[in-house]
Amino acid sequence: MSTPGNPPLPPQGSYQIGSGFGQKDTEESATAAMTGGVVDTYDKVREKIGAEIHTPTINARQLATAAQQAAGTALSAAQAAVNTAANAGEKADIAYANANDWQLEFAHSSAEVTKGTGEVMVGPMLNVRDGQLSILTDIHVALLEQHGGLTFETRVWNMDKTAYRVAHTAVIDPNVTIRNFSALTVPIYDLERFWAYVLDIIGSAPPTVLQICAAGVFIEDPEFA
Predict the structure, then answer these.
(1) Percent residues over pLDDT 90 in the chain
(2) CB 194 within 8 A of CB 107
């Protein structure tokens, strides 16, 4: 029979919480006092917390760090590309600002315009000095009369006059006698020659007098800079 007001003594060998209601117990002392079933349950809970909370959290943190680093690398690469493009554009602007102009004028026809090569098949030549590049930037067209429409190509012979390429195709609307084509970027090489080839004449009344001016710039060759 217990004494009134006094709690019964715990069974011998049972776990007794230390002073301060267990606040001074350590993890080691607490787990040492647990029975086998309690310890087993405690270990399972701890493993479950590690597998389902701690490990996923660490993995998520590592993935987030890797993604942040990858984003920083991509941003740096994009910025470098933008800077490179800006530098290239600035150099091109400087090169054009310091460029020397050139122009060559020639006639396809001095009277009635016909299909084909017309009066001039060889055409004027452009001399490009060492250390320079030449770029065709404009084609200027003048006719005396033109009614139904006209299409012609500005062609360029190579220096040996063994092959040609089409530098520009001009489509002239009906009743237009002056036409300018600008903002071209066609490279022209040393000793190449210009000539025109009429592809199509619309209507029964042929145009008269077809005069063409090819214009461009010399710029510094980067290989010689």
Answers:
(1) 51
(2) no
Residue whose C-alpha is closest to residue 113's, from 139, 145, 140, 141: 145
**Over the stretch 157-180, which tens digit does the pLDDT of each residue have?**
999 999 999 999 999 999 999 999
| Token pair belonging to 216 | 């461009």
pTM for this structure? Answer: 0.57
CA dist 18 and 20 (Å) reads 6
Written as six digits, the tokens of 192 are 């190449």
Query: Contact 203/149 with Cβ under 8 angstroms?
Result: yes
Intra-chain end-to-end CA distance of the chain, in Å: 111
- Residue 52 vs residues 40, 47, 59, 65: alpha-carbon distances, Å: 18, 8, 11, 20
Q: Give the three-state DSSP class for 172.
A: strand
Burial 25-54 (b: 16+ CB within 10 A, else e): beeeeeeeeeeeeeeeeeeeeeeeeeeeee
